[in-house]
Write a structure and sequence with these properties.
OB fold (Dihydrolipoamide Acetyltransferase, E2P); 5 strands
Length: 100
């Protein structure tokens, strides 16, 4: 990481630990403070009609100041304990930065 942070919910510098699933997705919103909305796309096979469905889900994740993910970035998020009512994931790293 480029800089240190004093965030206790940071998975790199803080005391919160990661567990469970690790997901990569695109940041579609960074308007809330210390929170990003990550959208991931996945396919689901429908056996009755023998077709694949393309679905997507939006996950709220904690965005520490040391990582500072922005709109359009491809990020890696990991599952943590509940941080707030809607957040149970934290951003662990940026796979690809948005050029804009």
């Amino acid at each position: 990481m480029e800089k240190e942070c004093n965030d206790k919910n940071c998975p790199v510098h803080g005391t919160i630990s990661t567990r469970g699933s690790e997901i990569a997705g695109k940041v579609v919103s960074d308007k809330a403070r210390k929170t990003v909305v990550v959208e991931r796309e996945y396919t689901l096979f429908n056996y009755k009609y023998e077709r694949s469905l393309r679905k997507r889900s939006r996950i709220h994740a904690h965005n520490p100041e040391c990582i500072n993910a922005r709109h359009g970035d491809i990020v890696r998020i990991a599952e943590t304990r509940k941080i707030s009512r809607t957040k149970s994931f934290a951003v662990t790293g940026i796979v690809k930065r948005n050029d804009k």
